[in-house]
Amino acid sequence: MIEEPKTLRIARDLRRPTDAQIAAFQGQPTGFVLDAMMGAGAMSAAITPCPGLSAQACGPALVAGNRPGDLLATLASIHFAQAGDIVVAAAEGHQGCAAAGDRVMGMLKNAGAAGFVTDGPLRDLAGLQAVGLPAWCTGLTPGSPVARGPGTLGLPAYVGGQRVENGDMIVADADGVVVVPFAILDAVIAAVAKVAEAEHALDAEVADGLKSVGLIAEMLDSGEGIDWV
Predict the structure, then answer these.
(1) CB neighbours (10 Å) of residue 117?
(2) Is 221 marked within a binding site?
(3) Would you say 124 is a known binding-site residue?
(4) For residues 57 and 174, is the Cβ–Cβ distance under 8 A?
(5) Which of 14, 100, 135, 227: disulfide with 104, CB 3.0–4.6 Å?
(6) Residue 68: which CATH number?
(7) What one-character DSSP code corresponds to residue 53?
(8) Residue 12, annotated ligand binder?
């Protein structure tokens, strides 16, 4: 006899970063965070901010793994979301129907979630805008999902080309979504501080009239790497 699989698999340990680690990423642009990880961590450019909503969110990932066209795990995330969580709802890239709609967003906001990220589209734009929960998705569609499962909550999933584990930091803004793995949070926090310092210094130089790129100036001066034709 083959045992019927369970509809939901839920991790017992829904790990989260410390409050200090979470605070360290607040307000950091995705570009700074990405540079601090040497260019790694960006989700697909197809995942963009939902129109008319705030394009700024940062918090620990609560990962909901769904089958294409299903949202059972996302519904389960409503019962486990903690204040400040970013629900990352994997839909295996399915574009045939919405990964969620305005009522799900409303309940997640009521539960304290700080944002929502999915590799599928959303629906009910007017309702989404009324709720106001920041959300990143692949677009909009009127298609409605089902809630049959199976699904997972708190277990790893692939979203937008990135493996996301529970407790990873999600940093999202108008440029897109970046995933910072839990295991390297402290190293990235240290690195992003240096990136921010360098970027702000360069911003000041540009504002003061800088019009020369060091790398190109050196190549022109030395002649190395240039082929005049």
Answers:
(1) 27
(2) no
(3) yes
(4) no
(5) 100
(6) 3.50.30.40
(7) S
(8) no
Q: 123 a known binding residue?
A: yes
Q: Which amino acid is at 158?
A: Y
d(CA 218, CA 214): 6
User: What angle do helix axes 102-111 and 72-80 make, rounded to 10 degrees?
Assistant: 20
Rounded distance, CA 7 to CA 211, Å?
Answer: 60
**In terms of Cα–Cα distance, which of 4, 150, 136, 128 is closest to 70?**
150
Domain count, the chain: 1
- Our CA dihedral for 74, 79, 83, 86, rounded to 10 degrees, sits at -10
5 conformational bin, left if phi > 0, alpha if psi -120 to 50, beta if neither = beta
Is 173 assigned a ligand-binding role in the annotation? no
Q: What is the pLDDT of residues 35-49, one digit of tens each?
A: 999 999 999 999 999
Peptide bond preceding 142 in cis form (omega within 30 of 0) = no
CB atoms inside a 10 Å sphere around CB 217: 10
Q: Which are the contacts of 214, defined by CB distance < 8 A and separation ≥ 6?
A: none
The residue type of 77 is S
User: Rounded CA gap, 69 and 224, in Å?
Assistant: 55
**Any binding-site annotation on 96?**
no
Token code pair at residue 123: 């629906």
Task: Walk along the chain (229 residues) in steps of 10 and give the mean pLDDT of each run.
Answer: 72 95 97 97 98 96 97 97 98 97 98 98 98 98 95 98 98 98 98 93 84 85 85
